Automatic annotation (TrEMBL):
Protein family per UniProt: Belongs to the ArsC family.
Domain of life: Bacteria
SUPFAM superfamilies according to UniProt: Thioredoxin-like (SSF52833)
InterPro entries: Arsenate_reductase-like (IPR006660), Thioredoxin-like_sf (IPR036249), Tscrpt_reg_Spx/MgsR (IPR006504)
Matching CDD domains: ArsC_Yffb (cd03035)
Organism: Pedobacter alpinus
Protein name as it appears in the record: Arsenate reductase
Length: 116
C-alpha cells in the first residue's frame, strides 16, 4: 500500500497520524509542506474532495492571526487556495493520500477502517 502523509512535523495531529502508521507497521512517505511547499493541483484536488472550507484550517493559529481584511477576502475555493499557497500552515493537517482512499485530519477510528 502506498501512503503519503502531508503536513508539518511539529503538528500534534500529524504526530498522531505518523505514530498510528508506525505502530501498525504501515510504511508511508512524509511530505513536509512547510519545507517542500504544496502545488495548486493538490489543493484543488483536496478542496474538491473535502470542500475548501475543511481544507482551510480556520481554527489554526496561522488563520486566526491573519489580517481581518485578508480573511474577509476568502469567499470561495479559488481565494482559499491562493491563501493556502501563500500560507501553507493554514492547510488542515494531516492530509493522507493512499491506495485505499484519502482523508484529512486525525481520526483513529477512520484510519482503522481505511488502513487496517
Amino acid at each position: 500500500m502506498k501512503v503519503t502523509i502531508y503536513g508539518i512535523p511539529n503538528c500534534g495531529s500529524v504526530k498522531k497520524a505518523r505514530t498510528f502508521f508506525e505502530e501498525n507497521n504501515i510504511a508511508y512517505d512524509f511530505h513536509d509542506y512547510k519545507k517542500a511547499g504544496i502545488d495548486e493541483q493538490h489543493l484543488q484536488k483536496w478542496s474538491t474532495a473535502f470542500g475548501w472550507e475543511k481544507v482551510l484550517n480556520k481554527k489554526g493559529l496561522t488563520y486566526r492571526n491573519l489580517d481581518e481584511t485578508l480573511k474577509n477576502e476568502i469567499v470561495n475555493q479559488e481565494s482559499a487556495i491562493k491563501l493556502m499557497l501563500d500560507n501553507t500552515s493554514a492547510i488542515k493537517r494531516p492530509v493522507i493520500e493512499s491506495d485505499k482512499g484519502n482523508t484529512i485530519g486525525f481520526d483513529e477510528k477512520e484510519y482503522e477502517g481505511l488502513f487496517l
